[in-house]
Design brief:
Blueprint lengths: L1 H18 L49 E4 L5 E6 L4 E9 L2 E9 L3 E6 L2 E8 L1 H4 L10 E5 L2 E4 L2
Antiparallel strand pairs: 1-2, 2-3, 3-4, 4-5, 5-6, 6-7, 7-8
Length: about 150
């Protein structure tokens, strides 16, 4: 009987304590938090205007703009990439001992596409080992046209 009254007393105490649980504060009223829209005519001054691609082609969007500059291959080979109009480049290239020329390149999905000697080619990112050229082995920042033709930055 004593055991039964202890269980009853403990149960009653738990019920009472559960009723005294700390109440959560109500959620804050967010109806006052609104963002005011400002018409374009009233936009803050001092903001940089958008780049006009036709006014300055060198600053227009080029997917591979970071590739601009000279890349060196083996035995005097090189490619110099110069951004021109949006999405286009001039490639000054010495691709073998007998072939030196200037080619128009354009952005493609994985690199810069160009036509050389009637063949459609593409410069794409790689490393020295992927060029297949011993002289470029171990280099990390390279552009590859095809196996045996690649250019790297030192």
């Amino acid at each position: 009987m004593m055991k039964m009254s202890m269980i009853l007393a403990a149960s009653t105490a738990l019920v009472l304590l559960a009723g005294c649980e700390k109440a959560e504060a109500p959620a804050p009223d967010r109806s006052a938090d609104t963002t005011a829209e400002v018409p374009a005519a009233e936009a803050p001054t001092g903001m940089t205007p958008p780049v006009d691609a036709e006014a300055n082609p060198a600053t227009a969007p080029h997917r591979f703009a970071s590739w601009a500059g000279k890349w060196t291959g083996v035995e005097g080979m090189y490619v110099t990439i110069t951004p021109t109009e949006p999405g286009h480049y001039t490639l000054e290239m010495q691709s073998d001992l007998d072939t030196k020329g200037s080619y128009e390149g354009r952005d493609s999905e994985h690199g810069i596409r160009f036509r050389r000697g009637g063949e459609e080619l593409s410069l794409h990112r790689g490393n020295g080992d992927e060029t297949g050229l011993k002289y470029l082995a171990g280099k990390k920042e390279c552009l590859i046209v095809k196996t045996g033709e690649g250019y790297c930055r030192d």
